[in-house]
Amino acid sequence: MRRLAPSLGLAAVVVLAAPARAEDVAPVPAPAPAPAAAPDTRPARPPRTLVLDRVARHAVLVSLRFQRDLRADAEGVAPLDPDAPTEVFRRWGMSLRVPGVVVRDRRTVLVADLYVPPGSVRGVMVEPATGPAVEGTLSAFLPALGAAVVTTQADLAAEPVPLDGAPALHDDDRLMAGALAEGPDGAEAFAEPLSTVRRPAAGGALAFGRPARTTAGLGGVEAARTIDLVVRDDGTPLGVRCGPGPSPRKTPWRGEGVLAELARAVPFDALGARAKALAATSHVHAVRLAFRAPSPDDELASWSAHDGALTPEPDPDARWWALAVAPDLLVVPSALPPSWVARLVKIQVEEREGPAIEGRYEGRLHDLGAFVVRLVGGTVDPVPAGRPPAPEAEHAFLVHRVGWRAGARRDQVDYRRSLGLARGYADRAWLASETAVEAGSFLLDLEGRVLGAAVELVPDDEDAARVRGRPDGSRGVVAALFADLGEPAALAADLDRRVMPAPARGTRRLPWLGVEVEPIRGAKVADALDIAGPTRDGARGLLVNVVHAGSPAARAGLRPDDVLLSARRTGGTTADAPPVDLRDAPNAAEWPDTSEVPRPWAPRTNALVRLLEAWGEGTPYELEVLRDDAVLRLSTTVELGPRDVTTATEARDAETGLLVKELTYEVRQGLKLAADAPGVLVAGVEDGSAAAQARILPWELIVEVGGSAVDGPTAFAEKLAAARAAGQRELRVVVRRLDRTRFVDLRIGAGSPPK
Amino acid sequence: MRSWSKVAVVGVLVAVGAGAATPPARGEGRSPLDFEAVIEHAKAKVFPALVFVRPVQEDLSAGEKRRIEVFGSGVIVSADGYVVTNHHVAENAREIRCVLADRRQVEAAVVGLDEPTDLALLKLTLAPGETLAPAELGASTSVAEGQFVMALGAPYGFERSISLGIVSNARRNLGDGDRRAYNNWIQTDAAINPGNSGGPLVDTHGTVIGINTLGVQMASSLGFAIPIDIVRRVVDRLRTDGRVLRSWSGLTLRPLVDYAQGTVFDGEKGVIVDDVAPASPAERAGLQKGDRLLEVAGRETNGRYREDLPEILWTLADLPDGRPAVLVVERAGAPRRVSIVPELCDGCDVSGFEAPRWGATFQAISRDRVPDLAFLRRSGVYVLGVKFPGPAAEAGLREGDILLSVDRVAVADLSALAAAYERACVADPGKPSVLLEVQRDARRTFLAVDVLPSAAEER
Asked: Between A and B, how many CB-CB pairs are < 8 A?
């Protein structure tokens, strides 16, 4: 819980001095050096009253009365943190009293950031230490100092802090920070020493106060947020402190800096105007996802392993908000549960004008709850290229949230303050923010350039995801910044494609390179093979086992024992994408189901094929290949592969209960069959059928029917038909399992003669 | 049992009174006067020859060398202490203790093993000049369905047990699987349980007509014994050679009428060639699947039913290896003579290799033991077992992986593996892991297995 008001009891309770007067107080001359007899060689300290007088002259208490944010309620924007104190105040229409400091003129008061929507503040009253209270409004926030501005309707009795011409600061100056607070007898000024806490700052100078505490993530921080007037112990005002600690370099707390900041204050109205502008011109598009109905398999997949809860059903009317990073790429900074991904059937990107554009699911950003959509039916305007720097500590940035309510898009712009960069979570630097930012929001700097998005951290490594016990594996919200991730357009280069929408039945021909590969299994193997450097300690690398004749790999000159390191697109709309490291899970090439008959060929979908599929047929690309300690670059193009066992031609015979398929290239290679060797692959045997009774098993081959070789499924069906037409009830077939054959007399039934 | 005697007495009396030409009662003219007495007499003849066999086997299937105590039965077949038992009782035995019928404990040594017939021959360590009372071996021709038999042995360790039953089927064929293709079996409902293996199946004369070997776990009263003729054939060879030499031609045979597989071929003569193994003598001789094998070295091979196959297999196996033999086959109606040079069937009893500092055990690939692996790689070494937990398990090594190389040096057989293991573990003690190249299905990959320090080997 944030402390909005300073706690009492820190400093001694003091009685207010005589009423402050309007004239400036000149600095008291430094006292004469102490006589030699005194052990303390420091100059005698000025009385504390000097500081307190100063504080009482310039500090005020600001009362905010809250109301329900009717506008936000109307827009259905839910509060981020329903238990935050400001939320509680809002709901109950309570009021809050925070300290403030009068600066620049008698109508400008600085308070610490409150992060409440301006629409929820019903009224503001500013109360000086002495003198009447004056009404005011929350008018603006400062871009680089953690303060907001209250503008009063009449002059205040308190004076503005004289901040121009601030004196030089010496290392052994004693600083105090003070403000007004509620005491038992009314408002009281108090001050606490700052200079007891020192830390080294850049350039050899000393800074005062505790260092900024940055925590990873965009979530509730327990730093005290208040505003203090910083005064030297002789009563000289130096500046204001809003952030965790004044630093001579980082924050403009010194006098002239504060005034400069005031000149740059951003009015709250500007946020609303910005939201309207973004609604019209931003690169954020609405994405609609269509899912098919769940099947029993999906149910099992959607049970969360963490707490046994069922993943909820997706809302068909929901809009997902995506940032266009390239003419054909959109990043959606929201997490999609894997069970939903598998059920995706259609993606449409809605435009303000014109028809919706069809899109395709590309994959998930590694370690983040964000996914990428590739447009296939058109293009959009992308965000300008560039990687704006992350905002420094205490600097404000904008949060752009888009919602969908009552059939219309609602844009909302808010501001947050950075706590600087924090390291953690996959050893990357993440932007830390003082208060919660909702995942799915877009982050902009004050000039309106897109910095990135707020996303949930969903580690690739599922075991790590379980550690925090959240059902979707999320470990909190982090900011994904282009400054850190790279060029926006490059985001789609290296995606996690392990979970993809299930393809339409049997129609999709997969692209191929034409190699059978096995991943390099880790650092120890890479080291033993002496390829640790190029494979980055075994983090990438696919060892080539087989190069299929006539394939793109063969034409490009690949050989067995080559190690594929990376692949890079050299053409297409996002052509300047960086290379994608080639790697795969160690047991990805295993059949998910068991079978009595061995299948010495691997499934066709692996990480390499999925990457080629994402790039699309015809995309030229370059492979980085390691061969005998040398790295080669081989160019080739994405081609569709020949039919494989899932897309092979087939024939089904109801009478015998057999489903047979042609022998495709990978089956032939695994079974060591020549390209023209006859036979069909038994792909299915119905229970209780004639074939089952004859003990024919799936994945065996039928090589001869009725004494003659059978070339393919069509020939198989024809032979059966011919035999039936001739009145035969049984056919002798030769069944082959690996390299053993046997005779089987198969009952083919009476059948009816062909017409 | 007294009622049995009464019936018997009555029956005889009736037969004699009627003066009818009654066929002679079973037992060569001996009338079944007193069933209990018959049983008692039979038992008394064989009991002294019954042995409770307790080997300690070395087992490598779990990824490490384990010593497992097993027990079975055996029967003394000669006065100087030869004992017949099953191969699966005595295989891989490092020591064998036997308990004789008079409760004496005697050590035994393995004289010979024959895996295809699941038989083994042991020799008891007797004092010089000591003799024992052997059992009398019968003849398989006289075994008929319905006759009373007794199974002697040690079911579940209860030694010196007798169970009684009949011959359910005298000529049962159990297919061409491991350890059962070379003979037909005597099926009996005398209780045969684990522990009976290797014990005698005895008829009412007290002669041994079979060696109890198999039972069906889920069923009751289904037990199988090896007929005594086969036992004699094998034991004679084990006694002289320590093994049964067989030659291999590479033929898989199919009877003319095979109800189990559902195929029927015409005619009365010959046996069908179902499969010719690649790179085999039969393939080199030009034999093909579908050929009808009529003669082998002048002997007719007629296999109308499955029960006819074991004898044909013996004929083929008895061909002298390395010397051409003439087969007569019929193809497309025309007979032809084919000369075949069978090879010696080797790789019968390879004990495997343990790599304790890797946490895995290995075995040589052979088409009989692991046909699926032999398809991938005709000869070589495969992983028999992986110890869990252990460095090989952690590296991802699995049972059934074919080992291609160790530290980039190819491994063609177990001795090459032993040398590679020695090099990897002993020669370079500072090296923390060894690089194994393995083949799994059609995929070839590298695994890095940590090498445990040698202190871990001490047990």
From this structure: 92
**How far is B109 from chain A, CA to nearest CA, in Å?**
39
Q: Are B444 and A586 a contacting pair at CB < 8 A?
A: no
pLDDT digits (tens, 9 = 90+) for A223-274: 446 788 888 888 888 888 876 555 545 556 777 778 888 889 999 888 888 8
Contacts of B107 (CB under 8 A, 6+ apart): B95, B96, B97, B98, B124, B125
- Per-residue tokens: A214: 């940055």
| Closest residue to B445, CB basis, from A518, A734, A739 | A518
Residue spans of chain A under pLDDT 70: 1-46, 68-90, 117-119, 165-166, 171, 195-225, 243-252, 296-311, 420-436, 459-478, 483-486, 488-489, 492, 503-507, 572-576, 750-755
ipTM of the complex: 0.84
pLDDT digits (tens, 9 = 90+) for A109-168: 999 887 776 667 888 999 988 889 999 998 999 888 888 999 999 999 988 988 776 677
Domain-ending residue, one of A264, A280, A310: A264
* Contact yes or no for B441 and A601 at CB 8 A: yes
Q: Cα-atom radius of gyration of chain A, to the nearest Å? A: 36
Kindly state whether residues A212 and A196 are assigned to the same domain. yes
Q: Tell me, what CATH number does A625's domain have?
A: 2.30.42.10
Determine the distance in angstroms separating the CA of B362 from the nearest CA of chain A, rounded to an integer: 21
Domain boundary among A619, A640, A661: A640
Tell me whether residue A290 is in a domain. yes
Domain co-membership, A315 together with A463: yes
The answer to whether residues A521 and A494 belong to one domain is no
- Please name every residue paired with B273 in a beta bridge, in sequence order, or none if there are none: B253
For residues A497 and A557, state if they share a domain: no
Cβ distance B443 to A520 less than 8 Å, yes or no, reads: no
Q: Is residue A279 situated within a structural domain?
A: yes
Residue of B nearest to A586 (CA): B396
Mutation choice for B interface testing from A702, A729, A743, A747 by most B CBs within 10 A: A743
Residue A547 and residue A618 share a domain: yes
Distance from B172 to chain A by nearest Cα, in Å?
21
- A35 lies in a domain? no
Domain hosting A66: range is 49-264
Does residue A455 share a domain with residue A317?
Answer: yes
Residues 6+ apart with CB under 8 A from A524: A538, B433, B448
Q: Do B376 and A600 touch (CB under 8 A)?
A: yes
